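Bumping with the actual sequence this time:
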Amino acid sequence: HRVDRRQRQMCIRDSTEDVCILNDDIRWFTPNWLASLQRALYSAPDIAIVGPTGKSRTAPMCQGKMGDTGLQTVNHLPFWCVLLRRSTLERFGPLDKRYIHYASDSAYCDQVNAAGLRCVWARAVYLEHKGHGSGRMNAWGRQDLALYQRERRK
């Protein structure tokens, strides 16, 4: 859960630049990965967040592989690697502090989608993500999932 707290702190900093949330367990990057994510982010005015292909349990990204191409609108992006427009962060704020780690990304993407903005999977950008441990259910994961489900029912 330390990564999520660092992510929240990073997002709060004053800046005019877009924000990349990147876990510390990335082992390999597609050349020019960040520039490619930024091109995808600014390819349409309603794109708020973009994320790459890589090891993930989240559909449809879990089906992605190196060599894929194109952009795909998705309901949710796992925040092990995402690029957010600064205007998105200013509009929706940082990740919700009530979550320990699991589901904070889902809650954020839900806000973005509800506002009529898009989360986009940049299929051609591939990062090798060592793990996806937050997807394993443990006590704090169950706690976060219960909170997320309660919030969605409101």
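The tokens above came from a reply further down the thread. Strands lie at 19-22, 26-29, 47-53, 71-74, 81-84, 118-129.
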